Amino acid sequence: MKMLNHTGVTLLSQLTSRIQQTTNCSCLAEDAEFGSCNKLYTQGYTISVAVMRSLKMNASKMDEQSRLEAIRNFADSLRRRLNRGQCDDDALIAVAIDERAVWTSVGKVTERRLSEDHIMAITAQAESLFSKGLYTDGLRYMLESYEKVLQGGTVAISSTFPWPLPLWVIITAACLGLLLIVLLISIVVLKFCLPRRDHYTLGVRQPQQQR
Fold first, then answer.
1. Is 185 exposed, middle or buried, given 0-12, 13-18 or 19+ CB atoms closer than 10 A?
2. pTM for the whole structure
3. d(CA 98, CA 59)
4. Which pairs from 148-156 meet CB under 8 Å and 24+ separation?
5. What residues are paired with 48 via a beta bridge?
6. What topology does CATH give the domain 6-150?
7. pLDDT for 109-153, tens place per residue?
8. Of the given ranges (18-22, 36-40, 58-62, 160-164), which has the lowest mean pLDDT?
9. How many C-beta atoms surround the C-beta of residue 156 within 10 A?
10. Domain boundaries, the chain
């Protein structure tokens, strides 16, 4: 399985350069500790891409949580080391093929526009392409989607967006919830609509004393 060919690398490089050109510098006074906008030339957000065959993980730690933690640590560490942004206004997409793991690390300034919710939804869509070995297409989708969000636009998420639970579980839960609501309404209606029975006072007859 090929990772990225020369054509794919060139395409992704062009996309990352375009994002720098089509977005604005978002460094504010409060971000001075990280840097400031370049006054000599206009530059927007900087996004890097790192694709590797494997993270060389221990075979005993290949569960999903461990894989995500490993790719997250790698992405965060590499982004900080590269330090390509002007004021922490950068991002780095890391993909580990053997571990089937993807993570996007973002700087504090980038995170103000590109939120975790955006990243999770966009990554979920791209993973359907990664699972087919279409890494260039998946990364292209992510970059173009990030570009729209960083420009202040919105990204349409497909109706095939994966739910966190199986669809049959969601449908079953919805039906049970609806049934419970109907049952509660029926009980309330019966309680207030049926004629009320007369109330009787229970008494005990005292035996008469013999004279």
1. exposed
2. 0.71
3. 11
4. 149/113, 149/114, 149/118, 149/122, 150/19, 150/23, 150/44, 150/45, 150/110, 150/113, 150/114, 151/22, 151/23, 152/113, 155/118, 155/121, 155/122
5. 92
6. Diaminopimelate Epimerase; Chain A, domain 1 (3.10.310)
7. 999 999 999 999 999 999 999 999 999 999 999 999 999 999 999
8. 160-164
9. 8
10. 6-150, 164-194
